[in-house]
């Protein structure tokens, strides 16, 4: 019934008349079609050349955004009518000029593909106050290159260009393709600008095409021009340049007190006096200096040396960032359904020692009201913590030569953090110190992070008698996972993380943006170094058979994570996003169980969205004790698979429909998690599946996401009705709602 009401409402919206927004002899652009006489030219590949598109249809049927707009009164400009017009989409009025430009753009695109005598027509069909357009492509014969000639006006360039001629993109017999010809221009230009010819650009390269009569063959001539004087009267060879003087100055419009040591700026300048000028070194200098915390922006002016015609000088103009900043942030929290609030205060100094060293101090506090706990005096969760970090823009390592440090483009980060967590069941203190390196490749799409040393000390000063007696003390009800994770523990680890994004790191994949993919790989190990020391000195072994350092056990494990996301763009408004993630962690040596902080969980806004956070798995395990399920519903292996169709709806609202699948498992068989162990022959039967839809409020600078998920396959149950809720849905049992900031992947 509800579905019928919704459909009826949408149809009502679509039926609203647009005549009131049309002047005399104006028509709504209702449909646009592209057809082709050749099966080699798919009409869809030319939709991007249309200068005018009809109003958006939901599910290709109903113009809901237009309907919302038409609900407004064109004769009124009150707040409600302005709101409707902002929310909706104005009617697209047919424009003959834009139609003709679209036709020409399509014809040019077909021409550039080698159909040199193509024709494109546009047919208009009027029905009432609506018009439909059909662009028809008649490509004719495609031309092929049968002869290639290269004319170089600057003879000094001939031996240089001959050295790269074997890599040419143009060959006899290939179809004429203007895109490939442009790629060849770019290839030659990049090579020359990488070899000192700073002022050479692609405009010096042009093509002449001669088609042969009664044939689909074409003769191609590439002309590489020489440099001309300002009055175009004198032709002279292109000049190869070396780097001359490099000067550093500050933007005169800024009043920032930041002044960076020139030695720091020099270390981050890839241009070196006396070297052959390379365009890549210029780009790299921009990138490296802009990565300094004390720099807001950089402008590098390249000018010819007035005294030496073979040199170019670089004037690096720095726009400093604000020296000090304080940021206060407030956020709502939701942990397994328990609502709370958190606040953090962050102070930054971006030039502590005048070498762009960044000092960060962050204080955080959080509060949650915990539901469903019986037998405890207090039902509140309170956390506070402080973190201090110092980031150096250089690679710092003992006994390392200055030459190597300057060549290594890595930042060094030292951090110290203390966190205090008070729950009704226990109090936990965590002290963390980190020595880390971060760097980006010359390719701005890649980043690396290496944790040389990360030391975590977990201290349990208090455990409630109720919790201790129920889950730790009693041999019959003793929970091994809880017993391990509620003792003092050292975690001494090292790790490496690699990230790649085809659209650049930090850029959002978007709702309906470009085709893109992201890759993340991470590996870490813990306990090996400290185990070697403790074994060498034969340190004390505790009652659980673990070696200790200062009478405190240490964790030993290996962990690997792989994550990849891919988006496929269908149009300016729609895309399909796919995600796959796999994580494996194996405790060994001094550990039989992973530390709680390193265990995987499933369910939630960024996982299988038919389940609430930390409520799925491991395997077919069904949580039955709300007091400790947050511990028991964790694992050593995690699998996430997601498919999401994304579309712009109207105004700032985007929509999505999704299917999620995945679960977690344990590598060992724990009695506290029956059905949770990973087994090759049964793991596929334990993959949970959910489906749902979401609404996103896209405010450009951040995105609010509301997702509603329903279980489709629930591995926790074996009976058909509950195992396949897709066919037997129960809203109370199978529904989960999620609120989050940002896209899930």
Summarize the structure.
17% of the residues lie in helices and 39% in strands. Among the domains are: 2-138, membrane protein fhac (Ubiquitin-like (UB roll)); 144-236, membrane protein fhac (Ubiquitin-like (UB roll), Roll); 242-320, Roll (Ubiquitin-like (UB roll)). With 745 residues, it is an alpha+beta fold.
Q: What is the topological layout?
A:
Blueprint: H1 2-14, E1 28-36, H2 64-70, H3 79-87, H4 96-112, E2 119-127, E3 130-138, E4 144-152, H5 158-162, H6 178-193, E5 205-211, E6 217-224, E7 227-228, E8 235-236, E9 242-250, H7 262-267, H8 279-290, E10 295-304, E11 311-320, E12 324-335, E13 338-349, E14 358-369, E15 380-392, H9 402-407, E16 411-422, E17 426-440, E18 446-463, H10 465-473, H11 480-485, E19 489-501, E20 516-526, H12 528-536, E21 548-549, E22 552-554, E23 557-569, E24 574-587, H13 629-632, E25 637-650, E26 653-665, E27 688-698, E28 703-713, H14 720-723, H15 731-734, E29 735-741
Parallel strand pairs: 1-3, 4-6, 9-11, 19-22
Antiparallel strand pairs: 2-3, 5-6, 7-8, 10-11, 12-13, 13-14, 14-15, 15-16, 16-17, 17-18, 18-19, 19-20, 20-23, 21-22, 23-24, 24-25, 25-26, 26-27, 27-28, 28-29
Helix pairs in contact: 1-2, 2-3
Approximate strand percentage: 35-45%
Percentage of residues in helical conformation: 10-25%
Question: Could you tell me how far the N terminus lies from the C terminus, measured between alpha carbons in angstroms?
Answer: 34 Å
Computed CA radius of gyration, to the nearest angstrom: 33 Å
Name given to the CATH homologous superfamily of the domain at 2-138: membrane protein fhac
CATH architecture of the domain at 2-138: Roll
The largest β sheet comes out as: 18 strands, mixed
CATH fold call of the domain at 2-138: Ubiquitin-like (UB roll)
Number of helices: 15
The shape is globular
Low-confidence stretches: 1-7
Mean pLDDT across every amino acid position: 88
Query: How many extended strands?
Result: 29
């Amino acid at each position: 019934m509800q579905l019928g009401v919704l459909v009826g409402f949408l149809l009502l919206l679509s039926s609203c008349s647009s005549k009131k927004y049309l002047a005399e002899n104006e028509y709504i652009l209702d449909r646009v079609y592209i057809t082709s006489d050749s099966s080699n030219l798919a009409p869809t590949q030319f939709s991007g050349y249309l200068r005018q598109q009809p109003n958006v249809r939901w599910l290709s049927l109903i113009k809901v955004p237009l309907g919302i707009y038409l609900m407004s009164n064109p004769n009124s400009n009150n707040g409600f009518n302005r709101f409707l017009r902002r929310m909706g989409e104005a009617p697209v009025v047919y424009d003959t000029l834009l139609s003709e430009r679209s036709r020409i753009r399509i014809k040019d695109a077909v021409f550039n593909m080698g159909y040199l005598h193509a024709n494109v027509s546009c047919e208009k069909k009027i029905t009432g106050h609506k018009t439909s357009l059909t662009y028809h492509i008649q490509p004719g014969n495609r031309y092929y290159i049968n002869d290639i000639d290269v004319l170089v006006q600057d003879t000094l360039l001939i031996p240089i260009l001959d050295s790269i001629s074997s890599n040419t993109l143009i060959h006899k017999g290939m179809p004429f393709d203007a895109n490939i010809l442009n790629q060849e221009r770019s290839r030659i230009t990049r090579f020359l600008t990488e070899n000192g010819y700073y002022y050479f650009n692609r405009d010096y390269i042009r093509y002449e095409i001669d088609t042969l009569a009664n044939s689909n063959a074409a003769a191609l001539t590439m002309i590489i021009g020489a440099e001309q004087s300002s009055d175009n009267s004198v032709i002279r060879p292109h000049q190869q340049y070396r780097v001359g003087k490099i000067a550093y100055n500050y933007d005169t419009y800024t009043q920032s007190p930041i002044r960076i040591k020139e030695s720091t700026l020099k270390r981050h300048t890839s241009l070196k006096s006396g070297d052959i000028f390379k365009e890549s070194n210029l780009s790299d200098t921009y990138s490296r200096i802009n990565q300094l915390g004390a720099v807001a922006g950089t402008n590098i002016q390249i000018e010819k040396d007035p005294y030496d015609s073979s040199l170019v000088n670089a004037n690096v103009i720095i726009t400093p960032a604000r020296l000090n900043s304080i940021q206060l942030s407030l956020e709502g929290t939701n942990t397994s359904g328990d609502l709370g609030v958190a606040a953090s205060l962050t102070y930054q100094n971006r030039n502590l020692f005048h070498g762009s060293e960044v000092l960060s101090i962050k204080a955080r506090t959080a509060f949650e009201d915990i539901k469903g706990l019986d037998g405890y005096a207090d039902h509140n969760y309170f956390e506070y913590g402080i973190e201090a970090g110092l980031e150096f823009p250089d690679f710092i390592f003992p006994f390392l030569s200055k030459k190597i440090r300057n060549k290594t483009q890595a930042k060094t980060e030292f951090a110290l953090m203390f966190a205090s967590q008070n729950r009704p069941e226990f109090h936990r203190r965590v002290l963390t110190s980190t020595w880390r390196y971060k760097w980006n490749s010359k390719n701005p799409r890649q980043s690396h992070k290496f944790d040389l040393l990360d030391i975590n000390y977990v201290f349990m000063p208090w455990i409630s008698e109720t919790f201790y007696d129920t889950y730790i003390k009693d041999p019959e009800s003793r929970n091994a996972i809880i017993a391990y994770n509620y003792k003092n523990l050292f975690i001494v680890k090292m790790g490496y993380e690699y990230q790649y994004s085809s659209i650049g790191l930090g850029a959002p994949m978007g709702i309906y943006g470009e085709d893109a993919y992201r890759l993340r790989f991470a590996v870490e190990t813990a306990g090996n170094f400290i185990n070697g020391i403790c074994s060498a000195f034969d340190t004390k072994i505790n009652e659980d058979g673990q070696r200790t350092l200062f009478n405190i056990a240490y964790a030993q494990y290996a962990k690997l994570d792989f994550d990849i996301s891919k988006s496929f763009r269908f149009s300016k408004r729609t895309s399909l996003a796919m995600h796959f993630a796999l994580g494996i962690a194996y405790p060994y040596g001094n550990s039989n169980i992973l530390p709680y902080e390193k265990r995987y969980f499933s369910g939630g806004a960024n996982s299988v969205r038919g389940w609430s956070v930390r409520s799925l798995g491991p395997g077919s395990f069904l949580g039955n004790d709300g007091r400790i399920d947050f511990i028991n519903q964790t694992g050593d292996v995690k699998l996430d698979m997601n498919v999401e169709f994304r579309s712009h709806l109207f105004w700032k609202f985007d929509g999505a429909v999704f299917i999620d699948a995945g679960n977690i498992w344990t590598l060992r068989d724990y009695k506290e998690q029956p059905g949770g162990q990973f087994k090759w022959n049964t793991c596929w039967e334990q993959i949970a599946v959910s489906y749902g839809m979401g609404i996103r409020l896209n405010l450009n600078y951040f995105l609010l996401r509301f997702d509603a998920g329903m279980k489709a396959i629930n591995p926790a149950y074996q009976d058909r009705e509950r195992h396949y809720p897709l066919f037997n849905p129960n809203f109370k049992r199978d529904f989960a709602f999620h609120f989050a900031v940002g896209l899930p992947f």
